[in-house]
Amino acid sequence: MSAAPEAYLDVVARIARATQAAGRAPGDVTLVAVSKQQPWDAIAPVLAAGQKVFGENRVQEALARWEGKAALLASGGLILHLIGPLQSNKAREAVAHFAVIETLDREKLARALADEVQKQGRRPRLYVQVNTGEEPQKAGILPADADAFIAAARATYGLEPEGLMCIPPADEPAGPHFALLAKIAARNGLKKLSMGMSGDFETAIRFGATSVRVGSAVFGARG
Ligand SMILES: *Cc1c(COP(=O)(O)O)cnc(C)c1O
Asked: Which of 148, 133, 141 lies closest to 109 in space, CA to CA?
């Protein structure tokens, strides 16, 4: 077996240092290794090094990539997070294959997920995606609508989101967006924050991220 890849070990070490520097407990921050658009040759050594949690942004691409790992998935040795926009008509596959869906952002999708939870008896962990930068091209509920949406997810659809997720605008400092996400989570009683990518995960940890979604810094540039 090959040695654990250096870039992966470096990200793991940087997460540990940032967690400690923020005065937080070791292990407080989960690395979601974003394997979208990566060749298997880049992923296999990271999996072999013990990484269990991977992030994917497309349902079909994820199923194709991980179909040979059904036993590992079933045993909990592999945990897939869906971090890309989800069409309601893919809710069935998303609920069947993902342990965590991070992109709940509208009522139609809440209804579709609730229906699948009922039918399949599987209950993936859910995050509400917030469009903190209010960018028209970006998915996510607007900050002003977040409280009402979270309340509806709970009361109308029987869903219990465990946290919030955001992708700050690429051309702005991320800190204020992370702070806003943390504030919305706190006032809604949500404990988990999925925020921070290759360029800003240490900042996100300072602002309270409980998971960071890191792709290129772990695997190299995407093809
Ligand atoms: C691609 C992607 C990431 C990872 O981005 P990197 O800059 O490669 O770390 C994180 N979050 C989401 C939602 C993504 O689509």
From this structure: 141
